[in-house]
């Protein structure tokens, strides 16, 4: 098995030692060491759960009566906010959800919104790194469409409005 550019093997001895052999060195973990590592990782998982419960940050605009919610972060989120205002001026019921913290991702709130809207449009300045997080949060309840620009190209509000207009009317 290759790892970190070196070959290694693993096996457990009859004395309960877990041995990892690297190219020129051997790391021996006793069962008590493994137990301490596991307890440390459990402590980290508890800390991460506390962070998930208390540190999720996001901004919402006009989501309460929206049919479609545009999701964007950073610069794309600001562009999306302008696009939502323009779409509202054209009579479209559109809202904005802008994650401020990407970890922990605001999946719980997006799931709640998914129960009230007919779709999401994710706007990004990349190939779609956040769209998968939105899809996981929505869990197939409504369509999640993607609009992305790459190479430093900033999407224009008019482009986003056009993508909003292309969203399915009835799902």
What is the element layout, followed by pairings?
Blueprint: E1 2-3, E2 6-7, E3 9-12, E4 18-21, E5 26-29, H1 31-54, E6 58-61, E7 68-71, H2 74-89, E8 94-99, H3 107-114, E9 119-124, H4 131-138, E10 144-148, H5 157-165
Parallel strand pairs: 7-8, 7-9, 9-10
Antiparallel strand pairs: 1-2, 3-4, 4-5, 6-8
Question: What features would you describe in this structure?
Answer:
The protein is an alpha/beta fold. Helix content is 38%, strand content 24%. It has a five-stranded mixed sheet, sandwiched between helices. A three-stranded antiparallel sheet has the order 3-4-5. The chain has a two-stranded antiparallel ribbon with strand order 1-2. α2 crosses α5 and α3 crosses α4. The longest helix has 24 residues. The chain is elongated. It starts with a strand and ends in a 6-residue tail after the last helix. The model has no long low-confidence stretch (mean pLDDT 87).
Coarse morphology: elongated
Q: In percent terms, what proportion of residues is strand?
A: 15-25%
**What characterizes the major β-sheet?**
5 strands, mixed
Low-confidence stretches are none
Determine the mean pLDDT: 87
Fraction of residues in H or I helices: 25-40%
Number of strands: 10
The secondary-structure element order is: EEEEEHEEHEHEHEH
Rg for CA atoms: 23 Å
Number of helices: 5
Strand order of the largest sheet: 6-8-7-9-10
| Structural class by helix and strand composition | alpha/beta
Cα(first) to Cα(last) distance is: 48 Å
